[in-house]
Specification:
35% helix; two-stranded antiparallel sheet; 582 residues; single chain; 8% strand; alpha+beta; six-stranded antiparallel β-barrel
Length: 582
């Protein structure tokens, strides 16, 4: 009996030990996969982001961007790249032994010496915004708009300025943090925001302009909206900006008769044209930028409205918003004398209407390559530069009073290629190419096969099979598509020729030769917008090149223009191969 009790106690002990060991073995991470949501997904996304694998936002939702980031991590660490974050993947991800992607942080920071997160938490993969002033993915409002504006002014593209802290803004924050030795967690906390402010201050001010209208970095201006509420103006409004200050300007311009468009809070071409007209009527330097002096004049009781007998006297030669940037006496900084007695209104990039159409028609009759569409875009700007070169004016692409007076005088010189140089038009044969054979063009996936192999700053070759024209682009920033810029002014000309010499958002299927030498199918437009980095390519901003993406992901993240480009790519691929891509 005693022996039995002894054996029983040992059996209980062994059983308990086995249970303990079994419990330890069962302490496994649960698999996370496409469609999952919650704090575990958020932790996964934050850790991937910190290690340099971009999940396309940290929202706690396991979408295609997270799946692709997991695949890249798995491939880099010798795991099966199935996009599912199982126990082995999560263990390697969280224990600090995984391979870090280019620019990733591991468990410390950039180069192992970056500061701790703005939140005060140094735990990779468990970064949460504990400070209520920290801006993070998913936030929205005027502070996000200000952050996006500042980042774009510093050269970090947020994929738009819309007041919504999305994946594009998060990527811009991460790039800024990496470039400046900060902990790159994608959270805009006190350290990050203060350094952004310092960087802007070192540039002169957040709203400086190289000429014309600019806001002072320490002062602000207030104005009243149509509802009677007060709006404070602290920045210079430029093309693409959004917000309550833009809305207030549009409403005030409507009151004064300069603006007939929709008061939608988006500073687009119609807003620029209205500001130009207001500036000309009120003796301000006419550059279409709405800064502190324009704000003050616009909301003053003495503002001159459209059609007033006093309007139109300045011809764009008034003082700029910053005195040390004011054009010298006798020049309006566009090559036209301010002493002209003509009543021509200065026209420039962004202007629209019959005056632009008339300008384009006159240029075309003299042999300058331009479309008479009434939209002063990049092509018109190039044609004006060519006209100015051929006629001995300062070639800045702005059609001021003297440019127009000479253009309409009957004494203007026709286009001369020897004088205009490569500005307009292209010599015969320039840009022509045979391109790759159709059979050699592949259909590569943006997130899975292209984006991991390229980087911003690389140059690619683009071939248009519809025109047999070929040009070069340089990658500017990489998000859900490739923001790009024509490499040179000649590349811009070739591209515009391929698009029929018009600015258009309509996607054009093209072949792109990647840095690896592989040709792949893509689609693109040729409308310059927002920021760019190449100053002498006659292209004011950047354009977008789209590559193959999953349709459900594109429909979720880019339901309009992104889907339009995906349809164009799929249609072209079917024409090329007969294959249907879902």
């Amino acid at each position: 009996m005693k022996c039995f009790r002894h054996k029983f106690r040992w059996a209980v002990m062994v059983t308990a030990l086995l249970v303990m060991l079994s419990g330890t073995a069962l302490a496994r991470y649960s698999t996370l996969e496409f469609g999952d949501r919650g704090k575990n997904v958020l932790k996964l996304q934050q850790t991937l982001l910190a290690l340099g694998y971009d999940p396309n936002g940290t929202d706690g939702k396991f979408g295609r961007g997270t799946e692709n980031a997991v695949k890249l991590f798995q491939a880099a660490n010798g795991l099966e790249a199935d996009g599912k974050a199982g126990h082995l993947t999560l263990s390697l991800l969280y224990d600090g032994n995984g391979v870090v992607a280019n620019g990733g942080l591991g468990n410390t920071g950039d180069n192992g010496s970056a500061e701790e997160p703005d939140t005060g938490s140094g735990i990779v993969g468990n970064v949460t915004a504990t400070n209520p002033n920290t801006l993070k993915f998913g936030d929205s409002g005027s502070r996000v708009t200000e952050l996006q504006t500042a980042l774009n002014q510093l050269g970090y593209d947020t994929n738009g300025i819309d007041g919504k802290f999305g994946a594009g803004t998060q990527r811009a924050v991460v790039r800024f943090q990496k470039d400046n030795g900060l902990y790159a967690d994608g959270l805009a906390g006190s350290r990050t925001l203060e350094l952004i402010r310092q960087k802007l201050a070192s540039q002169g001010s957040a709203g400086d302009s190289s000429a014309g209208d600019s806001t002072d970095s320490t002062d602000s201006t207030t104005g009243s909206t149509g509802s009677g509420s007060t709006v404070q103006f602290t920045r210079t409004l430029r093309k693409g900006y959004t917000g309550s200050d833009v809305l207030a300007v549009q409403q005030r311009l409507k009151e004064l008769g300069f603006y007939a468009g929709s008061a939608d809070g988006v500073y687009g071409n119609d807003s620029i044209a209205a500001v130009l007209a207001f500036q000309q009527a009120n003796g301000l330097y006419a550059d279409g930028l709405a800064g502190s002096r324009t704000f003050q004049a616009l909301f003053s009781s003495s503002a001159i409205g459209a059609g007033s007998a006093s309007s139109g006297t300045s011809n764009g030669s008034g003082a700029s918003d910053t005195e040390d940037q004011q054009p010298s006496s006798g020049s309006n900084n566009n090559g036209d004398s301010t002493g002209s007695s003509s009543n021509y209104t200065t026209l420039q990039y962004g202007s629209k209407g019959e005056a632009v159409r008339k300008l384009q028609g006159a240029l075309k009759s003299l042999g300058y390559s331009v479309s008479t569409d009434g939209d002063y875009g990049a092509l018109t700007q190039m044609a004006v530069k060519a006209f100015q070169k051929c006629n001995g004016l300062e070639a800045d692409g702005v059609a001021g009073p003297d440019t127009q007076e000479l253009l309409y005088s009957g004494n203007a010189k026709r286009y001369d290629a020897a004088i205009a140089g490569d500005t307009n038009p292209l010599p015969d044969g320039v840009g022509s190419a045979s391109g790759p054979s159709t059979s050699s063009v592949k259909l590569l996936h943006w997130f899975n096969e292209i984006k991991p192999t390229i980087r911003a700053g690389q140059t690619v070759t683009v071939f248009d099979p519809a025109t047999n024209l070929q040009w070069k682009l340089r990658f500017y920033s990489l998000g859900r598509h490739a923001d790009s810029e024509p490499l040179t002014a000649t590349d811009t000309q070739i591209m515009f020729k391929a698009f029929g010499n018009v600015n258009t958002w309509t996607p054009k299927p093209v072949y792109v030769q990647l840095p690896s030498g592989i040709w792949t199918l893509a689609s693109m437009h040729n409308v310059p917008h927002l920021s760019g980095s190449i100053k002498d390519n006659d292209f004011d901003g950047h354009l977008c090149v789209h590559f193959l993406r999953d349709m459900d992901e594109a429909a979720k993240n880019d339901p309009n223009y992104g889907v339009q480009n995906q349809n164009a790519i799929r249609k072209k691929w079917k024409q090329m191969t007969g294959e249907t891509v879902e």
